[in-house]
Structure formats: structure tokens, C-alpha cells
Amino acid sequence: MFDENKKSPLQVARATYQPKLPEVLKGNVRIKVIGQTEAAEDKEAIKALFPKSYGKPVVELEPDDTKETIAMNVGVILSGGQAPGGHNVISGLYDGVKHNHPDSKLYGFLGGPSGLIDHKYIELTGDIIDNFRNMGGFDIIGSGRTKLEEEWQFDKGAEICQKLGIKAIVIIGGDDSNTNACMLAEYYQQKNIDIQVIGCPKTIDGDLKNENIEISFGFDTASKVYSELIGNIQRDAASARKYWHFIRLMGRSASHITLECALQTHPNVCVISEEVAAKQWHLSNVIDLIVDSVVRRADAGKNFGTVLVPEGLLEFVPDMRSLIAELNELLADNKKFKMLKADDEKYSYVLKNLSSKNAAVYETLPLFIAKQLTMDRDDHGNVQVSLIETEKMLIEMVKKRLSILKEEGTYKGKFKTLSHFFGYEGRCAFPSNFDADYCYTLGFNASVLIAEGLTGYMSIIHNTYYSVDKWIAGGVPIVSMMNMERRNGKDVPVIKKALVDLKGAPYKCLEALRPAWSSGDKDNFAFPGPIQFFGPSEVCDRRTRTLYLETAMRDGEENVDNAKI
């Protein structure tokens, strides 16, 4: 009889996987100061907002077998969107606090930051933790997008922490969540409340990285999941030989996912938002890039291919960026606009209230895109870029251009298309071996930073391209990553997002290989296949191409191994 509660064989097998730890985390440690810090930008403004947190040093961990440890209760929060490996951060944190002292306890706040405010929590015991080791998702305690920004929220959090004897809170999240973690840490320091706050870097978008954060957790797994799907589509395209597939990928603020997936799958066209912005391309230039490949492949008898675009592309196109910025200001808390019901009323209202320059751009857009640009804003008052079907807009514009070329006699191919958006498919996958190890290490390391009395820090791991025994554990002040940014009509402190570096090795590699992928001379598609958990290390533990290229550049390798691309 079918047992509906029976776990899949992979769940059972993955539950037995023991994530690897760097050697330094296997015993007692102490911190070593390795450098002072200041804010990424807007230094004086950030210093004024975070006087207690500003200027703290970057630290690394080193062995200290003489240290005595004490029991300490810790709380943990999952914040923001899901990313593969979140459960392993919690597993590592649990094992770390128990390693520090067996009487330590770990409490999970339910449903994200709101659990801290509303005093909803559970004690995470070994039996609970064991059900979630190496599993995807955030369902052990749930996540949420409540912002920790107000003093009353901080005070409510202090109440429950004092009741439960919690001495530290670990917030697992992206740039906004870790910004909130820093605000919480600063408030508790200013009020002399004995609660530490530590952050862990999470986002599949890959834009939470800098000189101290080599990679955010979940990026490795998500990019491999998307690359498998893209590879499957490319195999189908090469088999059916009649469709161009336009694929939009996660990444509103940066194109790291799109770049990484391109390096793994070798599509015919890959659009990088940062390149579009740097070259001041209009939409017509993006269309030129795609049409050129379509025509050349048609000339070779290949009326099929793949196009990768990041979901945030439109915000990087100069004229569209100007339009979106004005729309964000115009529609922020706009009660009059919210009262309008009919689409044509909304369209007329927007057109009437835009500047003449942006109104002209707005008028040229397909109506379905114009409508999507005025949908409900996100929590920051900005356009919800993930709802804009950029890939469908590009398809329509390419069709229009090809019809003109066909009339001129310069294009004789066929252009059938299919569109795709890959987002949620990658957020809760079983974490890859890399993410399983990395996330477990981040959580365990967070427990050590707590034991060392640090607050307002982010758990960081260096040397992640290499084997785990060579990893270096430490912490960096969250405030050192911040700048001021305009949101909801106000300047607020946030962690500076990392864009694709157009001078960096990953983009330069794409730039060098892209002409061959675009042409019709031969198909260069790569087919990564599904994530492998068992087997040869070169298959199961393979790092992202981005991490390989960045590490090769950092460590001065003169010759990049194309077999690793």
C-alpha cells in the first residue's frame, strides 16, 4: 500500500549527508583582528546613523584550545524569499551552540521577523532539526518580509528574548534583512540591551557579495537548477529545430544569475543588464543583438535558439530607467491613483502626470507592458519587476523587426517562439553539496561569533572555491557594506548591491565566447543536467563558473581552464 508519509529515497539519503566543516571550527577558537572598516559609500551619513556599530574590525577565527565556554540561548529568523540551504544554516547554528555548550538552546521565530515581534516561536530540538538537514526550503520555521525598522518592534523583540533568556539573534536573509539586522544591533547597543545580532548572507540573485562575501548562499544551487532547465530546453530546441526560446531569469537588481547560467549553458544570446546600462543601449540596441543572431542562424538553416535575459533588464535601459524612476515617485502612496479601477483611466492618469520626455516613452510601450509598470508597488514603493513580462515584449519587438527585414528580402527564415520565466523553480531545491557545506559552515560560524561576543556582524567564509578544509571563517561588520539609497521618496541606509563587474573575469569570459554562441556555424549548447549529490567530486562538488573565474583572477592564474567553463 502507498504510504503518503513515506519520504523519497533522495530525502532519506540526503538526511544522512554530513556537511563538511573547516578545520578551525572543529575546536575552540578565538578571534583575530585583520582590518578596520568604514561604510561602502556615504560614510558620514552612515556613521551618524550607526555610531555604535561603525568602524568595527573584520575578524578571522583561529584555534584556542584553552577557552572555556558557557551555555547561551540563541534565536533564529528566516527573512525574505527562500534560498536553497537555509535549513543547513539553522542545522549548523544548532550544532554550533550545542558544541559550545550542551545546555544551550536554539529558538526559531515563526513566519520571519514578525515572529520576533508577535512572540511566536518554537524551541528547535535535535529531533526537529534532524528532519530538515540538507533539505531545501524554509519550512522548518517559515519566512516573512516584515521589516524590523521601528523602535517598538525592537522593544517587542527584546521582551521575548529576555523572557526566554536569549542572548543573541541570528537573522538569515538578503541585503534588506541584514540591513534590518544591523539596525537591530545598533538599537540594542545604544539602549545597553544585552542581545547580540548576527546576519547570514542569503540570496539566489547573487547580488549580496563584496570583498568580504565571496558568494551568497543559494546562488550555487539555484543557478544549477536553472541551467539544467535551460540545457533541457536547448536540447529540445536542437531536436525540434523550430523554436526560439526566450528565457527570463531571476535578478532584478543585477544579472549574476543570467551570467552564470550563460556560462553553464552557452545560449545563442545573453543580455546583461549592466552592459546595457554601461553602453547606454536603448531597447532597439537589445533587439539588434537578438535579431543579428536570429538572422545569422536562419541563413545557416537553423530557425531555433535560446535567449537569456534578466528580469530587471528594463530598469537598466536608460530611457526606461528614467520612466520607471518617475513612476516610482508618482505612484508612491498615491491615493488618487489607487482609487481608479479601469485600466484606461489608470493609463490616462499616468500619461497626464508624467514629464513630457517620459510620457513619450510610455506611449510607445505595448499596452500590456504599460499596465504591468503600474501594478501594485513592492514593499519599497518600486515597480514589481518580476511581474513585467520582458521576454514577451522582446519577442514582439523582434517579430516586428524581422517582418521589416523579410519585406526587404534580407531575412528568409521562420520565427516561432516560446517564452519562459524561471524563478520559483530554483528557490527551494535540495541544496547542492557546495551549498549544504557552505550553509552549514555559515550557521556554525555564526554560533562562534556569538560566543565571542560580537554583534552587528555578518558570518562570512573565504576561500570557498577550494576544498572545505581550506576555508577561512570570520565576520565582517554589516555597517561596512552600507550606503544611502532612495526608497519610497526617502534616503535610507541599505547594504550596497553588487552588480556584474564588466571588468571582471566572468563577464570578460562571456564577452569572448558570445560571438561563437551567437553564430549559425555550429551549435555550442552545453547541457549541465541535474545537480549530482553522489559520485566523483569534479561532478558533485563543482563550483559555479563565476566563483572559478573570480578566484582564478584573484589568485593570479594566467590560463583559465576552458573545461571548467
Structural overview:
This protein is of the alpha/beta class and 565 residues long. It has 21 helices and 16 strands. The strands form 3 sheets. Strands 1, 2, 3, 4, 5, 6, 7, 8, 13 and 14 form a 10-stranded mixed sheet that branches. A 4-stranded parallel sheet has the order 10-11-9-12, sandwiched between helices. Strands 15-16 form a two-stranded antiparallel ribbon.
CATH class of the largest domain: Alpha Beta
Outline the biggest β-sheet.
10 strands, mixed
Assembly form of the protein = single chain
Total strands: the figure is: 16
Characteristic key phrases:
565 residues, alpha/beta, Rossmann fold, 2 domains, 10-stranded mixed sheet, 4-stranded parallel sheet, 21 helices, 42% helix, 15% strand, globular
Brief sketch in words of this structure:
The protein is of the alpha/beta class and 565 residues long.
List the helices and strands and how they pair.
Elements: H1 9-15, E1 29-35, H2 43-49, E2 58-63, E3 73-79, H3 86-100, E4 106-109, H4 113-118, E5 121-123, H5 126-130, E6 143-144, H6 151-164, E7 166-173, H7 175-190, E8 196-201, H8 219-240, E9 244-249, H9 256-265, E10 269-270, H10 273-278, H11 283-299, E11 305-310, H12 318-331, H13 335-339, H14 343-353, H15 356-364, H16 367-372, H17 390-408, E12 417-422, H18 433-451, E13 457-462, E14 472-477, E15 482-487, E16 490-495, H19 505-518, H20 537-540, H21 545-554
Parallel strand pairs: 3-4, 3-6, 3-7, 7-8, 8-13, 9-11, 9-12, 10-11
Antiparallel strand pairs: 1-2, 2-14, 4-5, 13-14, 15-16
